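can u do me a favor
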């Protein structure tokens, strides 16, 4: 019988199926946007997929032989942590991390990884598949920023203040540094709002918020619109006297601003005491602010200039009362020891 008339053997069928499966797998690996990478037992890259090339901007020929952790934002420390989980569990699912691109940027990914083993069960390397989640991370960041930002002034809002003051108070106690707070209120704002309308009032609040940000330490201090025309500033590391000077600089700058002409500003300063609760801390600064406001009113009634200050008592405490109501709904586990 001629060879061409012979029936294909099972081995021929198996070989053809293997080739088709291999081609199918290669098509998937080549077309996916995910980064697929395999390493040897020393953590050096032995396969770098086209998706990995596109994601990181690194040609496979450059990546081959490089330690995988050279692309990790967390470096060798993060690689050791991942490998520890792999050795213990055999796989890692949806581990969120950042990878470094050739251009120097960062790509946020969700990585799933597993150990590669030979037929005898011996570990011969790792397989990692990383999905780009940068857009999702950025969206989450923006939503978080919106949730803690005052829409009008761009400062942080009351909600964020309630979170941050507990965190900052706890940190100040643990690390034993001073924490001061400044409460500032716009004198005469209600009259301006009634006379010139809410649009003018909104404009004034935005201008004053800008005056605050000009005088605080970027990345250290934090400013908040607490509500209406009340503003709060947290000043980590500053004792009361230095915090007062910050408040005075803010007020001096605002008074010199022609866009805020006709307004004045009252403020109160407090520094967190050793066993002082957060609500008492706020109340102390708040009360001092109202004392200053009351002193101006008393001076004006006696013919003194509106900005002439004297010390008189005032019983107004709206900011602290708002805090007391809000903190009653706050998880007590979030509050540092000694704070209520």
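np, heres the sequence
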């Amino acid at each position: 019988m001629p060879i061409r008339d012979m029936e294909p053997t099972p081995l021929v069928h198996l070989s053809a199926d293997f080739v088709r499966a291999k081609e199918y797998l290669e098509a998937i690996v080549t077309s996916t946007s995910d980064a697929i990478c395999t390493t040897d037992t020393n953590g050096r890259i032995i396969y770098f997929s086209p998706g990995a090339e596109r994601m990181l901007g690194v040609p496979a020929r450059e990546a081959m032989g490089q330690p995988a952790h050279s692309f990790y934002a967390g470096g060798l420390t993060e690689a050791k942590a991942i490998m520890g989980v792999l050795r213990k569990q055999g796989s890692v699912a949806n581990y969120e991390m950042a990878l470094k691109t050739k251009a120097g940027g960062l790509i946020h990914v969700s990585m799933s990884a597993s150990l590669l083993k030979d037929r005898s069960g011996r570990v011969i390397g790792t397989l990692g598949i990383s999905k780009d989640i940068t857009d999702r991370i950025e969206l989450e960041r923006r939503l978080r920023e919106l949730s803690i930002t005052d829409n009008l002034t761009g400062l942080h809002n009351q909600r964020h203040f309630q979170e941050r003051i507990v965190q900052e108070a706890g940190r100040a106690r643990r690390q034993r540094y001073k924490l001061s707070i400044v409460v500032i209120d716009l004198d005469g704002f209600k009259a301006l709002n009634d006379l010139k309308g809410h649009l003018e009032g909104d404009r004034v609040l935005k201008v004053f918020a800008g005056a605050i940000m000009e005088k605080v330490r970027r990345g250290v201090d934090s400013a908040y619109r607490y509500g209406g025309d009340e503003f709060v500033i947290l000043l980590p590391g500053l004792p009361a006297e230095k915090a007062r000077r910050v408040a005075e600089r803010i007020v001096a700058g605002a008074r010199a601003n022609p866009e805020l002409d006709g307004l004045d500003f009252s403020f109160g300063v407090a520094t967190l005491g050793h066993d002082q609760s957060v609500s008492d801390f706020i109340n102390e600064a708040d009360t001092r602010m109202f004392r200053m406001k009351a002193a101006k009113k008393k001076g004006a009634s006696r013919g003194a200039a509106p900005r002439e200050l004297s010390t008189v008592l005032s019983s107004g405490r709206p900011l602290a009362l708002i805090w007391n109501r809000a903190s009653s709904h706050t998880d007590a586990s979030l509050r540092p020891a000694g704070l209520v």
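Residues 306-318, 329-340 have pLDDT under 50 and may be disordered. hope that helps!!
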